[in-house]
Amino acid sequence: MKRHCMKTAMATGAFLAAITTGSGAAGAAMASPPMPSPSPTGTQPTCPGMGQMHPVTSEYDYLSQMVPHHEDAITAARQLQRSGRPEMRQLGQSIVTTQTAEVAQMKGWLEQWYRQSPAPSPSGTTMPDLSGLSGDQLDQTFLQHMIPHHMMAIMLSQQLLMHGQAQHPEVAAFARKVRDDQWAEIRTMRQYLTQWFGQQNMPCIPQMPGMTPGPQPGTPGRPTPTEPSPTGT
Predict the structure, then answer these.
(1) Alpha-carbon distance 23 to 31, whole Å?
(2) Which of 42, 107, 139, 192 sits at a 20 to 30 Å CA gap from 89?
(3) Angle, nearest 10°, between helix axes 86-113 and 59-78?
(4) Residue 220 · residue 5 · CB < 8 Å
(5) What is the biggest distance separating any 2 CA atoms in the chain, rounded to whole angstroms?
(6) Quick one: 219 exposed, middle or buried, by C-beta within 10 A (0-12, 13-18, 19+)?
(7) Is the dihedral of CA 228, 183, 75, 89 positive or negative?
(8) Contacts for 139 with CB less than 8 Å, ≥ 6 apart
(9) Element at 95 (helix H, strand E)
(10) Distance CA 149, CA 138 (A)
(11) DSSP code of 46?
């Protein structure tokens, strides 16, 4: 298990190191993010919105983890309709619309390909209850927790791709889209958080053993050099 976690960390490390380098204002906001608290087990970080991260072991495992993870984000994003900022209301609606469609797609694949396997079940929310919050407190709390929540989805998607675990090209394409779409939303959320609440309120960037700082090959939207080719070449 320890060896598998290290391989997982190395697989996700290059992508995370690459995407956490930016330019201009966005780059400055992301240059020195707070680090997560050490994990008691030494296998995963402790970041708000991350929760317990389990290494992806198969295509079925990826889909069964992503369904409740998406549903968690949808529940939180619906609360943004009460935000006083139009940017946040638009962000919330975008997350609800996109991820609701993705949940339906993933459930369809699970029914089609993995009918004999256990259905996904909620593993406990990693987002706080936002129903009692309003104004700046609602917006700031959402941003501080949804950024690492999105990062977890990116890490899970990148694990699937790096290890060549997708058994169907549709799932590989889906994982790339989740990775790239949610990274674009992270950039937007970090800009909002810096603009409205100051860089000191940035959440931690999750890291795992084996990750190294600094630019690495690979950018969102393109397979990294170690990602298996869809054609097998």
Answers:
(1) 9
(2) 107
(3) 150
(4) no
(5) 52
(6) middle
(7) negative
(8) 80, 83, 85, 88, 192, 196
(9) helix 86-113
(10) 16
(11) B
User: Would you give the DSSP letter of residue 207?
Assistant: -
Whole-angstrom Cα Rg for the chain: 17
Distance CA 38, CA 168 (A): 36
Tokens (6 digits) for 94:
């975008």
Q: What value does the mean pLDDT take over residues 126-139? A: 96
Mean of the pLDDT values across residues 125-147?
Answer: 95
Q: Region 24-36: what's the mean pLDDT?
A: 40
Q: Please tell me the predicted confidence (pLDDT) of residue 10.
A: 46
Please return the burial class of 121, using the count of CB atoms within 10 Å of its CB with bins 0-12, 13-18 and 19+.
exposed
Within 10 angstroms of residue 149's Cβ, the number of other Cβ atoms is 25
Q: Which pLDDT tens digit goes with each residue over 47-71?
A: 554 555 678 999 999 999 999 999 9
% the chain with pLDDT above 90: 58
Going by C-alpha positions, the residue among 101, 194, 183, 179 that lies closest to residue 139 is 194
Q: In the Cβ-directed half-sphere of 96, how many Cα atoms lie within 13 Å? A: 13
Contact yes or no for 175/62 (Cβ under 8 A): yes
**Tokens 């298996």 belong to residue:** 228
Mean pLDDT of 110-135: 89
